[in-house]
Amino acid sequence: MGGIIIKTPEQIEGIRKSCKLAAQTLDFAAQFVQAGVSTEYINTQIDKYIVEHSAVPATKGYNGYPKASCISINEVVCHGIPSEQVILKEGDIINIDVTTILDGYYGDTSRMFWVGEISPEAKNLIEVTHHCLYLGIQQVKPDNFFGNIGFVINRYATAKGLSVVYEFCGHGVGLKFHEEPQVDHTSRRNKGPKMKPGMIFTIEPMINQGRAATRVDRADGWTARTIDNKLSAQFEHTVLVTAGGFEVLTDIHNEYAVT
Fold first, then answer.
1. Mean pLDDT by 10 residues, the chain (259 residues)
2. In whole angstroms, how far apart are CA 93 and each of 113, 120, 186?
3. 206: Cβ–Cβ under 8 A, 6 or more apart, which residues?
4. Spatial CA neighbour of 92 closest among 70, 110, 117, 127
5. CB 65 within 8 A of CB 71
6. Domains along the sequence of the chain with CATH
7. Which pTM does this prediction carry?
């Protein structure tokens, strides 16, 4: 787990700007989340928005991934490929995940959206998942163990009768799309490397209604679904370890006070 990059002040500022753009992209995309709209249409708008802001969508072409965003609906856990055939309908829950490259720096974030009225179970899943991200972020401070992020997330989600996806994780980010460390969302307490000021990484818990396991569609090699076809939700922020705690670089709505 060596090789976690401590970013310089100049790098942090560049990453902060890219993170802000990524978050603004999700705000922009929100208007298109409506019944009857295809995920491909939403992706096209995202692609245009990022490019118009002098940046590049990091997912496009990454290991062969074809689109500017990941849009994952209902039982899709992550890496849903936008398609003209996937049309949003009343009651759907949707995760939109974008990563921007601005002046060579990466910003990564995702959040949940929904169409019209959703079921109480879906609403509960989204609320629990959002709180899991909050709990994970509260663990970010110098000399804390990375494992404590996953420990508190898993403890809370399972107490609510839900499960935590263990096959996908958060990651270092900023100078590259995926860097050290791996940030697990289910972990043992006080395990893994320690956080140091200047480290930047994502926390992105994926929480399932049913079993934690996933399966990837053979047809496209990307789309990961819950193994039992029950709902999944995810929120993601890019977080900086500061001398006093954390700064959520993709938080443009002042949800998290800088510590």
1. 87 98 98 98 98 98 97 98 98 98 98 98 98 98 98 98 98 98 97 98 98 97 98 98 98 90
2. 6, 12, 23
3. 77, 78, 129, 164, 165, 168, 185, 232, 233, 234
4. 117
5. no
6. 9-248 (3.90.230.10)
7. 0.97
